[in-house]
Amino acid sequence: MCAGEQLSEEILDAWRARFGQEVYEGLGMTECSYYLCETRSRPIRPGSAGFAQPGHDVRLLDPSTLEEVAIGEEGMLCIPRTDPALMLRYWNREEETAACFSGDWFLTGDYARRDADGYIWFLGRRDDIIKSFGYRVSPFEVERVLKDHPGVVDAAVVGETRDGGKVLVAAYVTLRSETGLGVDDVLAYARGRLASYKAPRIVYAVEEFPRTRNGKVLRRGLEPGRAVAVASNEAVKAGC
To answer: Within this chain, do residues 221 and 188 fall inside the same structural domain, yes or no?
Structure first.
């Protein structure tokens, strides 16, 4: 199994070809351990966190109303207070404990959507969701598309604030030099496979990503000054 970061379809396919085995994705958090996962009982859909594990009643709720959202809509992953694996509280942190519980629910702060077949797709933490030109964009959805390009080693997507408060979807990528892929190619690749509001407006090529101790990309450490090459959609400069 794997967890921590979404598994790209390219890596999954390479793993299958080499070892003849599946890789099952899981999603969890310190407060509740693993509570979502893919299983052998259903086909793997690359990028999906799968289904609620037995014993967990996971819902996608509107955090302001605590009403369940419709199929395909974005909602916050919420877990009942009665979940046997859920923490009781944060030790000696009453305000933080109170902030993450509402009514009968523990609010994880993670956003996701559920498709018509019940698969859950992780969209990101509350602070990771990019609000660009009136749309909400999941960086993980964009990264999954970029990582599927054979010339892209890794990708991370963030919101970049420009003059006037405009927030643009910006992608940072590391590239395989032997493929000859350039940042303009990445920009075109994304625009051909994503809705226009999700596609990056800027692509930065970097030699490496800043990372946490356990290897996750440190998003707040991404900045244009790290770039070795840049591509930008000129339409953005005109305010489009």
So the answer is: yes
CATH code, domain with 163 = 3.30.300.30
Q: Which residues of 44-70 are buried (b: 16+ CB within 10 A; e: fewer)?
A: bebbbbbbbbeebebbbbebeeeeebe
What confidence tens digit (pLDDT) does each residue in 19-69 have? 999 999 999 888 988 899 999 999 999 889 999 998 899 999 998 899 999
Domain match, 213 and 191 both: yes
What pLDDT, on a 0 to 100 scale, did the predictor assign at position 236? 45
Rounded to 5°, angle at Cα 138 from 165 and 2? 140
Positions of the chain with pLDDT lower than 50, given as ranges: 236-240
Question: Structure pTM?
Answer: 0.71
How many distinct structural domains can be found in the chain?
Answer: 2
Residue-number span of the structural domain to which 176 is assigned: 130-237
